Amino acid sequence: MSSPYTGAQPPTPTTAAQQNHSLAFRVMRLSRPSLRPDPAALLRFDPRDVFLPEDALTSPDPSAAADLLQGLLHPHDSGAETTVPGDFTFRDRFLLRDTADALAPPGLLVLPQAFGAIYLGETFCSYISINNSSGLEAREVIIKAEIQTERQRILLLDTSKSPVESIRSGGRYDFIVEHDVKELGAHTLVCTALYNDGDAERKYLPQFFKFTVSNPLSVRTKVRTIKDTTYLEACIENHTKSNLYMDQVDFEPAQQWSATILEADEHPSVVKSTIRDLCKQPILIRAGGGIYNYLYQLRPSSDESGQTKTEGSSILGKFQITWRTNLGEPGRLQTQNIHSTPTPSKDVDLRAVKVPAVIFIERPFIVNLCLTNQTEKTVGPFEVFLAPSISGEQKAVLVNGLQKLVLPLVEAFESINFDLSMVATQLGVQKISGITLYAVQERKHYEPLQDIEIFVDVE
Question: What was the pLDDT predicted at 49?
C-alpha cells in the first residue's frame, strides 16, 4: 500500500517570464512507509506466531500452544523429540539480535520525510500535481511528463490527444507516473504544461526535478577451474540503508555451460516438515554492507551427439537477482556477462579414457587413451611415448613392449582411441606420468598428459 509524502526536489531556477505562470507542478514520491518500533516495548518476533490461534497464549491450559506447535513442526512420522524449543510466554522475546527482528505492538508506520534514495532495479513511482494558484482559470491544458537520462528520454504521460479542459482558480489536476529504473547516475523528471491563461494567451511551462540513482548492491565474482570443472563464487553486498530479502538469485549459464548451485548440508537437528517448507525463510542481507556468498559448479554441456561444446567465447553467464525490502517493495537486477579466465586453445587434446580398477605388480595392463583434433584441418601423424623422468630416477610405471606408438592422421574435429600397454614395477599408490605426444611432420612436442594415480597390488 503506497502513500504519498512531501519532500519534492526543488525545480531549477526559473526566469522572470516563467514566474508569471498561473500553473505550477508539485512532485511527491510514492513510497511505502517504514516501521518504527517503540524502544520501550521491543519484543522479538517469532515466525511461528502466525500459526497460533488468537487465544492460544491466554487459554487456561498453558501447554496448549506448545502442543499445537508440536503438531505443526514435528509430524508424527518424523521421530523427533516431543519438546518444542523456546518459551512462548514472551519471556525470551526481549533478546533481540537486531532491531529489525522486533515486533513492537505500539509501533507506528511512518511516512518518509524526504525524497529518499532511489536505487537501480526499483520502480520509481511519483505523484504529480499541477496547481492553479492564480485567480484565473487555465484552459486546454496539455501535460507531458518524461524521464531524461544520459542515454535516452522516456515519455511517461502525454495528454496531447485529450487535453484537460480547465483547471479553475485554486484547483489542481493530479496524476501518477511510474518508471522502472534501469540506469545509474543523474535522472531528470521533466514536467511541461501548454495552456491558455485567463487572457487567452498560450503559455508554455517547463519544470525540472532532478534525482540520482545509486547501485543497491554489488556482485563480486571469483572463477576457479579444476580440470573440466569450473567453480564460480559470487559475493553479494548490500549498499542500501534497509535490509534486502533475496527472493531469487539465479545464475543463467551460457549455452555451452550447465550450472549447479552448491549449498551446505542442513544440520541433522533441522526437522523436515510441510510447514517449514511452505514458510521457507528468505535469505536476508543486512543493511549497510551485509554480504551473502553463493557457489556454483559449472561443467561444459554436451549436445545430442555427445560432443562437448568447447568452442565459443569465454562467457560463463549472468545473474538474475530479485529482492524485497522490509515492507515488500520489489527490486530486480541483471548483471553483465561473467567471463572466465581465458585459456589458450590447443590444436589437439590427449586424455585418458579408461584405466583398470585392479592393477597387479609386474603384470601388463591396458590404458585406453583418446586423441582429439580440435582444428579445421587434418593433423598428424603422431608418436606417443613415455618421457624419461627429469630427475633421472626409474619410473614405477613403464611402457610394455614398443617404446613408441605411431598414430595415423586425424581428420578435422575427429577423435581416435588407442591402447597403451604398461606395467607397474612397485607396489602401492603410483603415478603414470610423462605420456607425451609428438607431431612428426611439425617436429613439435606437446605437453605431457596429466599424471594418473593408480593402486598396484600383489596378485
Answer: 56
Q: Which of 380, 5, 24, 377 is nearest to 170 (CA)?
A: 24
- Condensed to tens digits (0 to 9), the pLDDT of residues 174-197 reads 999 999 998 888 999 999 999 988
Higher pLDDT, 97 or 161: 161
| Block residue for cell numbers 574435429 | 413
Q: CA 377, 383, 389, 394 torsion: positive or negative?
A: positive
pLDDT given for residue 449 in this prediction:
85
Grid coordinates given for 312: 565459443
Q: For the chain, what percent of residues have pLDDT higher than 70? A: 71
Mean pLDDT of 23-32: 85
pLDDT for 94 equals 53
Residue 452: predicted pLDDT: 87
Annotate 320-359 with b (16+ C-beta within 10 A) or e (fewer): ebbbebeeeeebbbebeebebeeeeeeebebeeeebeeeb
pLDDT tens digits for range 148-175: 998 899 999 999 999 998 889 889 999 9
* Contact of 120 with 183, CB cutoff 8 Å: yes
d(CA 86, CA 201): 74
Hey, what's the cell of 51? 500459526
The C-alpha cell at 253 is 549459464
One-letter amino acid of 321? I
% of the chain beyond a pLDDT of 90? 14
Kindly report the pTM of this predicted structure: 0.57
